[in-house]
Amino acid sequence: MKWALVGASRIAAGYMIRAFRAQPGGAVTAVLSADAQRGAAYAETHGIDRFFDDLDTLLAEADCDAVYISTTNEKHCEQALAAIAAGKHVLCEKPLAMSVADAVRMVRAAEQAGVVFATNHHLRNAGSHLAIRELVSSGRLGPILSVRVFHAVSLPGALRGWRISDAAAGGGVIPDITVHDADTVRFHLGEDPVEVVAQMTNSGLGHGVEDSAMSIWKMPSGAMVSTHESFTHPFAGTGIEIHGTEGSVVARGVMTQDPKGTVTLTDPEGTHDIPYDTHDLYERSMGLFEAAVRGQGRPSADGWDGVKSLAVALAVREAARTGTAQKIDYGV
To answer: Which stretch is the leader sequence (predicted)?
Structure first.
């Protein structure tokens, strides 16, 4: 499969280009940047043949089967719709859009065009999370009582641009991290939150956007979920705990792009380390994406997964803004 990058981004450079090229016959043929000079330098650095500063021109002229969108959040919708109209398969970064309605438009357009559309929710591809999901789905934990996600980090200096200063571009910790936690909880529990309460704050890092948030979610099964996301915690560590009537799983250091961290299960027989595969998260994701293009299965996180994670994140922000519980509107 031949890919074009819509956005000369750090995540593409650090993870995605390698994952695309790791697939049999995989290639990255073009990159788009609004800054032509940046685009040219990026293409040269990463061995990409062509660079463009106009999306319509790229879609008309680049030799590509699919596009990967990793621009700022407010651009995702129109860029995805243009790529879909051009008959390209699309992998889009989270959150898919600035509103649930726009995200639904994107997914429905792809369905009507007959192209594969996926959301780049990487954590559900991690060996650690696949192992956790197996513990839950196999019934090893019994009925689930509660989940705690702790995903408070120190945002690296290189990323402290629009994410902490530009609300119009989709900045803030909720669209950046809460949206991932929403997908991760949905992946493990196999159900969608129905209502949330939340608080958020700007503790000094953000400029016009929240840099920390906490929320509690109500699940259809009756399980309770609590989450904590932040850009300002250098020593907190990350992880997820899932507690059931027959056991508890505690995973630390697993909310990451790299295959690392520990997973332990405590049940009536004691505490056990849970082994897991340490494959590359993004290579697995791209393998499933390309299989879906061939008509074999589905992407690890499809467009509707992206819609639902966005809906949860936006409900968390609205609950925090208003101080009232918010029922989640999934737009369908």
So the answer is: none
